[in-house]
Amino acid sequence: MSALPWLVALPLLAGIATFVLPERSRAPVGLAFSLPVLALSLWVLARVAGGDTSPHVLGGWAAPLGILLIVDGAAAGMLVLTALVSTACACHAARYLRGKTANAHFWPLLWFMWAALNGIWLSGDLFNLYVGIELLGLAAVGLVALAGQAEALAAAMRYLLAALLGSLAYLIGVALIYASLGSLALPDLAIASFDGNGRVTIAVALTLMTIGLMLKTALFPLHAWLPPAHGGALSPVSALLSALVIKASFFILLRLWLALSPDAVPLALAWLLGVLGAGAVFWGGWMAWRQTRLKQLVAYSTVAQIGYLFLFFPLATTTVDAAARLAWDGMMLMLLSHALAKAGMFLAAGNLILAVGSAQIAHLAGVSRFRPLSLLSFGVAGVSLMGLPPSGGFAAKWLLLQSALASGQWIWIVVLVLGGLLAAAYIFKVFRHAFVEGPKRDHFESPPLALELSALTLALASLVLGLAAHHPLEWLRIASPFGGAG
Amino acid sequence: MSTFNTLLPPLVVCTSLLAALGIFLLKEHRHGLRTVFNLSAAVLKLALVTWMAIGVLGEVKYEFRYTLLTGVDFVLRADALGIMFTGLSSVLWLFTTIYAIGYLENAPNRSRFFGFFSLCVASTVGIALSGNLLTFFLFYELLTLSTYPLVVHRGTEKALRAGRTYLAYTLGGGAVLLLGVAILYAIAGEIEFAAGTALRHLDASWHPLLMVAFALLVFGLGVKAALLPLHGWLPTAMVAPAPVSALLHAVAVVKAGAFGIVRVVYDVFGIDFAYQLGLLQPLAWLACATILYGSVRALAQTDLKRRLAFSTVSQVSYVVLGTALFGPVGTVGGLVHLLHQGLMKITLFFCAGNYAETLGVHRIDELDGAGRRMPATSLAFTLGAFGMIGVPPLAGFVTKWYLGIGALDAGMGWVIIVLVASSLLNAAYFLPILYRIWFSEQRAPWPDEHFRDRRDTHPWLLLPALTTAGLSVAAGLLAGMPSSPLYWAEVVVLREYIP
């Protein structure tokens, strides 16, 4: 599909444009660029849904020399998700950052991040994925540092360190694979057969790359960098990071595992990822419940929710085809609905903090009475995170439950059910404080309507996804190993 | 099937959903417009439900179906049982709305209150009209979410603590229910509410797992139905405003649990298959234990609303008991109590709210002489209490009569002893209240008297109580007439359970 390069080029162009233009025109230009990219993303999804999954070779050079752009249902879905969440966050940021010094730097960074993300969704070889994740990491660190306070800068430094370490581990794995196969294109990986030495090399490479990507995705126990970075950033930045950036490294992990033939993937490693995912659900949920600051609570919730995604790896190793497909569906839906819900929740949390003028959860008393809309967005997003119906989070959890039942891996049921209850505990903790009718306080700042609406839109989208998941799931399956040829 | 008939069930759910949205969007001080929204939605819903009820009697099919996920549909369907519960909800919603408007006059946060109130009714109606187990679960959880803000409405430390207890119970129960639902779907695919057709043909090797699933479902539903070890949230939730208590107890929450158990026994497993698996006997024991336990605990309460709460624990289990009795007569007894208990208990809670709002009376020993100050409220309370005790020919008697005969039919004669004991206990905790109201002299000035210039209390508070009391009397007196609760219960049984 010849439109694919534009999905990377256009954001790069926007990044450069917002970088060279004078500061006061950056926001309008940055915002204006989001519309054509959104439209193009939707168009690509429509083409993919129509059955067109032809790859694009940049400049006519074939693999292994050229740059291969591939598109399947999952990539198209991620393109649209990125466009939706980024557009909503850009709308929020345009108002939120007005008159702040961060405004000047936010727009170029946002667009470089967007370009990197789109590059990752579309890349067809391991080296380009590396380039994408490096650019993404740098843009994300820059975005975290925008908050400007000492705490945020320290968090950004830690984040930078984690991101670099992760890329390094990934790069070593890439080198090992190249030495062993002579190609880095994902389609070549799929048909390669391994024996003796090659098998060991590939196992070492896979392990290294997995660890690097785990670190970047902040999978428990490598999550320590995430809560300060996501919790300390500016609200629209937190939303982008939690919704999209960590999903990119997860997506690469997914690409890698699915590209390798099943006998090259050690079963124990898959189970280990599942167990760590379970650990993330419990530890993240517990830590979220213990937080006293609102955005830190939401950040730890991200740590917990990432865990569900990793349940896919053991579930997909099952020999029952139906169960593997359910796992794929559930994982993809969880990814989408978490992105929408978490972005909505971070924006809503930012609005609540604006309204009460404090980041402490305990200071929310009375806010339900005077700023119900911000609280409503927070709650609607919370429904999806708790996995209660009707929401995308529920549908995803239902699919994962069915997959666990069908494959006989009953242990994950416990994780899914208890994880939801833990999420309820920390989300209702916020409500408990918001409903207090204690000290008579009747002066609250009023967040501008644009901020309220962008939060509400994202939160509602996560809810609607639960009611309208049937067709999106069919699209996401296109050209994946889980049926649905197009 | 015409489009209108397809769209009618979602339309009925949407009337309160749209009312909720409208109310949320209104500014706090738009009281007039909010009242218009509230009442017109309630009346419109009642009209639509009446239309549908007539259609259902004439065997018209109302079904709305939509694919949610592969192999999982969202189904809203009006069958006789569903319409019965929908009818109850929409009638009582109308009266509770009127009552709440009067009760919350000059109170803060009314926009939030009425918004969630409408959302709560939308979920209840969704529960009633669900056509399969997953749709039921969807609305069942929505009900939990929409009632939480009502329970903590007052925002006091006590209310928030009650809210936490409420959530711990209901969300925990919801998780268990989800597990049961997921297991059934994994075994048998889509579980339509259709007299157990999905499960009865399964291989016998599945039976142990089916029994586990049944236990999980009953546990999950038992939390809301306040079955014996799971009833703890109900008395605690009494800190909520009176209309909420009325709603929780008579219509929405506990009934959703009891209704769910009815659905599981009759429509998911099928009564004869459940009997064959030996699931009914333990359920009957559990129900009887809850009936007696609730009554005994009610006896010891000194707070009026708490006594009523434990009485609810006891009375809702009559519905479960009727379900567990194998045979059509027992079923009629259980189903009819779904409606009877609703009418009687909502009357009692309205009256308790009136005493609290008008006289500031919360404790039973403060009620001395209240009958002279508030004769109309006291009359309504007396009718409700006599109904609960089961004095012929009031509604409670009809229930107990059918349950007794049903127990004999099912060969469980011992149930009659439970019924008699429970009636005696009911009398023991209601009659002293009535004695205080009517025959004791007022001993001390009322703790916090309002409406001094009125003979009784505010008409918005009084009229709903009198109307529901009247309806509960009519349900007993006119039990033999068409469209009485008993008539509907018989229609349900004839149509669905006796092939």
Task: Please tell me about this protein's structure.
The complex is a heterodimer of chains A (486) and B (499). Chain A is mainly alpha-helical. Helices cover 75% and strands 1% of the residues of chain A. In chain A, helix 10 runs antiparallel to helix 14, helix 11 packs parallel to helix 18 and helix 17 runs antiparallel to helix 18. The model of chain A has no long low-confidence stretch (mean pLDDT 89). In chain B, strand 1 and strand 2 form a beta hairpin. At the A-B interface, helix 16, helix 17 and helix 18 of A face strand 1, helix 5 and helix 6 of B.
Helices and strands in order, then pairings?
The complex is a heterodimer of chains A (486) and B (499).
Chain A: H1 4-20, H2 26-49, E1 56-58, E2 67-69, H3 73-96, H4 102-122, H5 126-145, H6 150-181, H7 186-191, H8 197-217, H9 226-232, H10 235-259, H11 267-290, H12 294-310, H13 312-316, H14 321-356, H15 367-370, H16 372-386, H17 392-407, H18 411-434, H19 449-467, H20 470-476
Antiparallel strand pairs in A: 1-2
Chain B: H1 3-25, H2 31-57, E1 62-69, E2 72-78, H3 80-103, H4 110-129, H5 133-151, H6 157-188, H7 207-225, H8 233-236, H9 242-251, H10 253-269, H11 271-276, H12 280-299, H13 304-324, H14 328-359, H15 370-373, H16 375-389, H17 395-409, H18 414-439, H19 459-477, H20 485-497
Antiparallel strand pairs in B: 1-2
